[in-house]
Structures are given as structure tokens and as C-alpha cells.
Amino acid sequence: MPDSDPALLDLILHAREERNIEYKGSSGQEPFAWGVDAVNSRIARTTMAMANIGGGSIVIGMDQVAPDAWEPNGVSDEVDASYQQDRVQEYVNGRADPFVELAVRHVGWEERRFVIVQVNGFRELPLVCTRNGMHLREAAIYTRTYARHESAEIRTQSEMRELLDRAIAVGVEQRLQPIIAALRGLISPQTQPSDAKRFEQQRGNL
Amino acid sequence: MTTTISETDGRLARIHETGYWRVLVHPTVFEERRIPTLRDCEKLIEAASVRLRGWDYPHVDNNGYDRGEDFIQSGSDFGNHVELWRMYQSGQFVHQFAMRGDRVPMSSESAHHRENRAPGSPHINFIDVLYTLTEILEFSKGLAYRGVLDSAGSLRIELNGTKSRMVSAPTGRMIHGRYVADQDSIGWSATQPAAILIADAPRLAVDATIRILKRFNWPEPPRALLEEEQRRFLERRL
User: Fold this and answer.
1) Angle, in degrees to the nearest 10, between helices B126-145 and B223-234
2) Which residue of A26, A58, B88, B185 sits 20 to 30 Å from the alpha carbon of B71, by its own alpha carbon?
3) Which residues 6+ apart lie within 8 Å of B79 measured at CB?
4) Beta-carbon contacts of residue A131 (< 8 Å; ≥ 6 apart)
């Protein structure tokens, strides 16, 4: 049963790539089906890049009609079925260290089907590519560039600085969480609601 | 007349009598006392408030603010302006307001569109959508600029009561086509780095406008026209 979560539909209807949103076409020369090495390695590179900037989404089923315009045309049933959580996760994490947290979602909108790969930001350490491949290079650290919203190896000092800042922030936050919780006499961090949930609880019915 | 906390539920019920907007803006990380005091919340609203047309965003009623334990709020019930907003010390801003024109017909709706829609059927002025989103994004930019959103802001804007609502144009503007929503709730959400909000709020507002108008089954809302209208709006050349 395809998902119709409004937050996922928003990703489709955004119709413009962002640093944390990448679109992949459905009607180009090759259908963007999982199982083809060129496709798999591009998805793997993008998931690593997104994990390194704090997370993002890849939407498959969007056709580029102008330099900055995309149409939500969807994918065929075959392409849709080719993306399975286990297969994608196994492939990506066979090439990333430590590991990428991702979720494959199948979305339905106006009788069209889309695949969305959602990626969480890294939890402890930045992701490093561990194997060579068509669009992968062993030991590369990927990021999403600001200028063209593409996944590429870190090449500039500012990109490296951003990654290090994120790693420090994530690490410091993790180490401080138990201390803050203990000081406040709160429940353990494992059962603490997410930030989004806490904002939701705060506003109640408003 | 402002909205006291005890009147909140009643005001919300009145807002929900018609189509309405719901706006959420907050940092990505929850910190209960990000803004140290309620007085600081008031100063923040005064500093970040956007004044581009007769009704500022967000509008502070003549009676000022009402204070809760960790938030300030204000609201109005005046003609087409039926609204309630709240600013929490966590940096979370929540605003609900009735769609203008649902309660009192807007004089700015063009005769062409008034004639083209069924009597009594709801409509939404696409220029008003642009202006409203521009105000919301400019206000968010003000929050980001003052550090309230920290490194990134989460935005969610919803239009509720949109099913069968038709896009209309103000006097002097024409839309070639009849665009009607088939869903009762239309939303736009984004998480944007503070630097992007500060640098690019107008573009984000045009993007959001186009996204929302597309949900009214308008295939290609005119970006160039919207950008020009927005430029005039921001330069207060209306």
C-alpha cells in the first residue's frame, strides 16, 4: 500500500532540488531502477553525502524539464518494486563506514508512484566510502555542495570545516545528554521524545 | 480586542468556522528557555514584525500581549482579521488566522472572478497568498537573523478548508483558467539553514506560493509575475 504521508508528498511537490533534496528522473534513457550498478552507486553516494550534512531525501520519479524545474511523473511498477529496504540498505552499508541510517518509502500521489529514500544524519562519525565503484571512490568523504546541490567529494576547507563542526556538535550533544538528563532528574535519553515531538507537545491543539 | 488565554479555545473555534491558515516556525532543536524571558519574547516580536501593508505580521492587538507560563500571545477579531498567534520561549511561533475574504467579501476581488465562481463558493486570492507567504518568510528571516532559529529553522504552513476553493485574482489581474483545489488541507513545509532563510526568504516565499497554487490544480503559476508582484510588495510600491 503506497504511503500518502503529507510530509512525503511535500517532498514531491517541492519540485526543486535543495541541498537536502535530490530528484532522480523516471523517463530518461535509463529507468532509475535499483539493481543497475550505475544507479546503485549513485544512490549510495548521495545517501552518504546526505548523512554527512545532517540528513535528506532522494525522490525517484521526478523528470527535469528545465534547469531548475522538475515534474512529478512517477515511476513504473517495475522500478517501484525494485527498491526494497533490505536490498538498498545492504548495498549502501556494504560501502559506507560506519553506516547510513535510511528508510525506503513507496509513495502514491495522483495515481503515480514514487520512491523516496530518506536518510538520517550521522549519529557519531562522518561517513567514509569504503569501496570503489562506478560513482564511488574508496576513502572519499562525500557532501552536498551548496552551489549546485549535488553529491561530491569534500574538496574545500569550508566543506571540511562544516563536517567537523557537525561531528563535534553531534559528539558533544551525545556526551552531554546523560549529564543534562541526570541534572534535571529526567527520564533516560533513550525515552526522551524527539525535538519535533516536544515542539508538538508544547503547542498542544494550537 | 486581544485574546486572553482563557479565550484561546473560543478564538480558535471562531477561526475554524471558515478556511484558515496555520503557521508553525521553530528551531530544529528544542530548548525550553531559548529566549530567556517573556519580555525578551515581546522585544523579539517587535523587532522581527513585518510591516508591508495595513496589517503587520504578526499583528499585536492594541491591548498588547497576554502572557502564559512560557509564551506570549495576541489575537484579533476585527472584520476579516480573525487570528491568534503565540510565541514561546523555546523559539516556537504558532499562528492561526482565518482566510481573508471568507467572512467579509474582499473588495479587491475582480468582478471577472466574482462572476466566474458559484455564488457563495469559497475562493482565495493568489496575490494575497503571495503577500501572506512573503510576510511569513520575512518574519522567519527576522527570527533567524536574531539567532532564535539557531542553525536551522523548521517551517510548516497549512491552508485548511481548501476543498472546492477556487483561485481568484484581485482587481486588475486576470487568471486564464479555473483552478480549484480538491483537497481540504494544503501544506508546505521545509527545514532551512538559518543562512538560507536570511539570504533567500523572498525566493522561498515564491517557491512556497507556486507549490501551494499547484495544489489548487494550477499547472504553471506564473513565476515571473509573482516575482514582480513580490518585488513591488517588498519595496512597498503598492
Assistant:
1) 60
2) B185
3) B103, B104
4) A94, A95, A138
Residue A190: give the domain boundaries.
165-200
Residue spans of chain B under pLDDT 70: 1-4, 104-120, 237-238
- Note whether B157 and B189 are within 8 A (CB): yes
Which residue among A15, A20, A195 sits closest to B30, beta carbon to beta carbon? A195
Number of A/B CB contacts below 8 angstroms equals 48
- Judgement on whether residues A19 and A81 belong to the same structural domain of the protein: yes
pLDDT recorded at residue A50 = 94
Low-confidence ranges of chain A (pLDDT < 50): 187-189
* Claim to verify: residue A52 and residue A101 sit in the same structural domain: yes
Domain membership of residue A180 (yes or no) is yes
Of A20, A196, A202, the CB nearest to B88: A202
**Chain A 179-198, CB below 8 Å of chain B: which residues?**
195-196, 198
The CA distance from A139 to A119, in Å, is 20
Tallying the residues shown for chain B, one arrives at 238
Q: Do B211 and A14 touch (CB under 8 A)?
A: yes
Same domain, yes or no, for A134 and A111? yes
Which parts of chain A are beta strand (E)?
21-24, 55-60, 62-66, 69-72, 96-97, 102-109, 112-120, 128-129, 142-144, 151-153
Report the run of H or E that residue B76 belongs to, with start and end. strand B71-78
- Determine, yes or no, domain membership for A19: yes
Phi and psi, residue B85, nearest 5°? -135, 160
ipTM beyond 0.95? no
Q: What is the pTM of this model?
A: 0.59
Lookup: cell for B209: 506560493
Rounded distance, CA B86 to CA B71, Å? 7
Provide, as residue numbers in chain B, all residues whose Cβ is less than 8 Å from the Cβ of A14. Answer: 190, 207, 211
Number of domain units in chain A: 2
